[in-house]
Design brief:
Layout lengths: L22 E3 L5 E4 L6 E4 L3 E2 L7 E7 L5 E4 L14 E2 L2 E3 L5 E9 L3 E5 L8 H10 L3 E3 L3 E5 L5 E10 L13 E9 L3 E6 L3 E6 L3 E10 L15 E8 L7 E4 L6
Parallel strand pairs: 13-18
Antiparallel strand pairs: 1-2, 2-3, 3-8, 4-7, 5-6, 9-13, 10-12, 10-15, 11-12, 14-17, 14-19, 15-16, 17-18
C-alpha cells in the first residue's frame, strides 16, 4: 500500500513525506525514504520483508547508537500495530545541512539581531521592545531580534546552517530555542549586536524559516565572565509562507 504523498527521492534532498509507515520506493523496490515524526531520513539498499511483495519500516522500539529508532514493519500495517515480520534494515544516513559556517562573534547588552533586509525604514528599537516584553524574540520583514540570557560574550561561537528543507527538531539538545521567518536580500545575512559587533554571512536571497538555538548558559544577566561559554546556532531553510514567531524552549537558571 503506497501513500499518495510518497515519492521517489533517490539521491535528492531530504524532505518530509506523510505519516508513520508512509514509504517511498524506487522502481526496483528499494525503500529509500520513510515519513513520520522522524522523517527526512534517507535509506540506501533494499528493505527485505518476510511478507512477499510488502516492503516497509517504521520508527519504534529501541534507539540505536546514532539515535535513530527503528524496527521492521510491513507497509500495510497501521501505526500502533505490532509488526509481525522480520527483515534486514538497510543503511541509514542522518540528514545534514547543505552548508554550514561557524565563527566567533561578539554579544553585548544581552541581544543580537539577524538582519537580512536592511532599510532606513527599519524600526529596530520597536522590535527590541517587542522581544523584551514578549517571548524573547521578535521579527519583521527586515530582521529578527533575539534576547539572550547572558549579558555578554566577547567570543561567542555562532554557527549558521543552510538546509534544503526543515531540519529535524533537536531542541532537547538546546536550552533556548525559537522559530521565525526571515527575509534575505542581496545574498547577505548580517549578525548585529550593540557596540558595533557585526558579522556578514553569505546566504542566497529569498525567504527562509529560521530556527535559532542557544545553550551553555550559567546565569541571567551578568554571567560572571566576558567569555562565559554559551553558543548559538541558526538553521535556515526555504520557506515561502508566513512563519509565526514563537519560542520553542526557555532556559531557567538553577535554583
Amino acid at each position: 500500500m503506497k501513500h499518495p504523498e510518497a515519492s521517489v527521492l533517490g539521491a535528492g534532498p531530504f524532505r518530509e513525506i506523510g505519516q508513520p509507515c508512509v514509504t517511498a520506493e524506487s522502481p526496483d523496490g528499494d525503500l529509500i525514504a520513510v515519513g513520520g515524526s522522524l522523517g527526512r531520513l534517507q535509506w540506501h539498499g533494499c528493505a527485505v520483508s518476510a511478507v512477499p511483495g510488502r516492503i516497509g519500516w517504521r520508527y519504534t522500539g529501541p534507539t540505536t547508537s546514532d539515535g535513530v529508532r527503528g524496527r521492521a514493519a510491513t507497509s500495510g500495517v497501521r501505526a500502533g500495530d505490532d509488526a509481525n515480520t522480520t527483515g534486514t534494515m538497510p543503511y541509514v544516513s542522518r540528514p545534514a545541512p547543505r552548508r554550514a559556517e561557524e565563527r566567533a562573534v561578539r554579544l553585548d547588552y544581552g541581544q543580537f539581531c539577524l538582519c537580512g533586509n536592511p532599510s532606513p525604514d527599519a524600526d529596530y528599537m520597536t522590535l527590541l521592545e517587542q522581544a523584551i516584553n514578549g517571548s524573547g524574540i521578535a521579527a519583521d520583514d527586515h530582521g529578527v531580534i533575539v534576547i539572550s540570557p547572558h549579558q555578554n560574550n566577547v567570543e561567542m561561537p555562532f554557527r549558521l546552517e543552510l538546509w534544503e528543507a526543515r531540519p529535524l527538531d533537536d531542541s532537547e539538545d538546546w536550552e533556548e530555542a525559537f522559530e521565525a521567518g526571515l527575509r534575505v536580500v542581496d545574498d547577505v545575512l548580517r549578525y548585529l549586536s550593540p557596540t558595533d559587533a557585526v558579522a556578514d554571512f553569505e546566504v542566497p536571497s529569498g525567504r527562509y524559516g529560521a530556527r535559532i538555538s542557544g545553550r551553555g548558559f550559567v546565569n541571567r544577566g551578568w554571567p560572571g565572565s566576558i567569555t562565559p561559554g554559551d553558543r548559538w546556532r541558526v538553521q535556515l531553510w526555504p520557506y515561502a509562507g508566513y512563519m509565526p514567531v514563537r519560542r520553542l524552549k526557555e532556559w531557567r537558571p538553577p535554583l
